[in-house]
Design goal:
Layout lengths: L6 H19 L6 H13 L2 H8 L5 H25 L8 H17 L3
Helix pairs in contact: 1-4, 2-4, 2-5, 3-4
């Protein structure tokens, strides 16, 4: 139900998981080129990547990426939903770096 979401708590939880996955993947959130490449990959990942991550043998790096890409979708949805009710949701450095890269990548894909 609209108006009952705790966007601040959601933001903290999502960012914590983004930080954890970033740590597992060796992401430097201050490296704009690396984060932009990760954003591009997040937008391009496919259902086949998810199926591959779910099947053995276990590829921990791929699983972390698939989780991170899912978190990216949650992050964008949280920002969009909260903005719709007049709340600006944003986290700390990892959140901001990833969100900025995702939005920039989305903008490059829009038809002119």
């Amino acid at each position: 139900m609209a108006g009952f979401e705790d966007y601040a708590a959601d933001t903290r939880e999502i960012e914590l998981e983004i930080e954890r996955k970033g740590l597992a993947l060796g992401v430097d959130w201050t490296d704009d080129v690396q984060v932009r490449a990760l954003a591009r990959e997040a937008l391009d990942h496919s259902a086949s990547d998810i199926r591959l991550a779910e099947s053995g043998p276990v590829d921990h790096r791929l699983m972390a990426k698939v989780d991170l890409f899912g978190l990216a979708a949650l992050m964008l949805r949280t920002m969009e939903e909260s903005a719709g009710v007049g709340i600006e949701s944003h986290g700390g450095p990892a959140w901001k770096a990833f969100a900025r890269a995702l939005w920039a990548e989305v903008q490059t894909r829009k038809p002119q």
